[in-house]
C-alpha cells in the first residue's frame, strides 16, 4: 500500500464510506482546503492504482489546557496540537486486512508517524481527533487516545487526544516516503 499527498490525479469519485460527510469532504473539499493551507490530505492507494482506498487529513490546531487531564505542568492556556481532521476508508475495504492491519489502522499509524515527524520542527504536545461516532471513538481509544475534558458543548462532543510523549514512547518506525514526497533540499 502507498500513502501520498492528495492531488488532482487521484480518483476521488469512486470513494464512498459510511459517513456521507467524509465521502463529500474527499470529493469536494480536500483539494480546495489544501490550496488554502487549511488541511493536508494523504491518500491510501494500491500500488499501480490512483483509486483512493482511504485517507486522512492533518492540520495544525490547539487544545485548551483545561481539556487535558494532567495539565499542571502546562504554562499556557492553549497547547499546540496536530489535528487528524478526518480519517476514513472506503466501504469496499471494511474489515479487510493488509499485512495484519485494517486499512483504518494503516491510515492512523501513518498519520501518527507524520505527527511525530512534524513535531520535530514545529511544537505539538498532543494529537487531537474529533470522533464522529461511538464506533470511531472506540477505534481511537484502542490507540490510547483519551477524552478531552469539558467538551460536552462542542459540535463533535467526542474530542479525544493522545499526548505526544506517549506517542514518542511507541518508537514508531519512520514513514517511508513515496516518490511524490521526496523533494530535494534547498540549494545554498
Describe the structure.
The protein has 188 residues and is of the alpha+beta class. The chain has a single domain, classed as Aminopeptidase (3-Layer(aba) Sandwich). Helix content is 25%, strand content 26%. It contains 4 helices and 9 strands; from the N terminus they run E-H-E-E-E-E-E-H-E-H-E-E-H. The chain has helices spanning 20-35, 103-119, 134-141, 164-169; strands at 2-5, 40-45, 54-64, 78-89, 97-98, 101-102, 126-130, 146-147, 159-163. The strands form 2 sheets. Strands 1-2-3-4-7-9-8 form a 7-stranded mixed β-sheet, sandwiched between helices. A hairpin with a 2-residue loop joins strand 5 (97-98) and strand 6 (101-102). The chain is globular, with a radius of gyration of 17 Å. It starts with a strand and ends in a 19-residue tail after the last helix.
Strand-helix topology:
Blueprint: E1 2-5, H1 20-35, E2 40-45, E3 54-64, E4 78-89, E5 97-98, E6 101-102, H2 103-119, E7 126-130, H3 134-141, E8 146-147, E9 159-163, H4 164-169
Parallel strand pairs: 4-7
Antiparallel strand pairs: 1-2, 2-3, 3-4, 5-6, 7-9, 8-9
Keywords:
single chain, globular, alpha+beta, two-stranded antiparallel sheet, Aminopeptidase, 188 residues, disordered C terminus, 7-stranded mixed β-sheet, 9 strands
Amino acid at each position: 500500500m502507498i500513502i501520498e499527498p492528495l492531488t488532482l490525479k487521484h480518483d476521488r469519485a469512486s470513494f464512498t464510506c459510511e459517513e456521507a460527510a467524509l465521502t463529500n469532504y474527499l470529493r469536494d473539499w480536500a483539494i480546495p482546503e489544501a490550496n488554502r493551507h487549511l488541511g493536508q490530505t494523504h491518500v491510501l492507494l494500491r500500488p499501480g492504482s490512483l483509486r483512493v482506498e482511504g485517507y486522512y487529513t492533518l492540520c495544525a490546531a490547539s487544545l485548551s489546557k483545561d481539556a487535558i487531564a494532567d495539565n499542571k505542568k502546562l504554562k499556557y492556556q492553549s497547547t499546540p496540537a496536530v489535528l487528524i481532521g478526518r480519517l476514513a476508508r472506503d466501504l469496499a475495504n471494511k474489515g479487510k486486512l493488509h499485512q495484519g492491519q485494517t486499512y483504518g489502522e494503516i491510515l492512523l499509524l501513518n498519520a501518527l508517524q507524520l505527527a511525530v515527524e512534524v513535531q520535530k520542527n514545529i511544537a505539538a504536545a498532543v494529537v487531537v481527533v474529533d470522533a464522529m461516532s461511538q464506533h470511531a471513538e472506540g477505534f481511537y481509544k484502542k490507540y490510547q487516545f483519551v477524552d478531552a475534558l469539558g467538551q460536552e458543548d462542542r459540535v463533535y462532543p467526542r474530542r479525544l487526544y493522545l499526548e505526544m510523549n506517549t506517542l514518542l514512547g511507541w518508537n514508531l518506525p519512520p514513514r517511508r516516503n513515496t516518490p511524490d514526497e521526496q523533494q530535494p533540499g534547498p540549494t545554498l
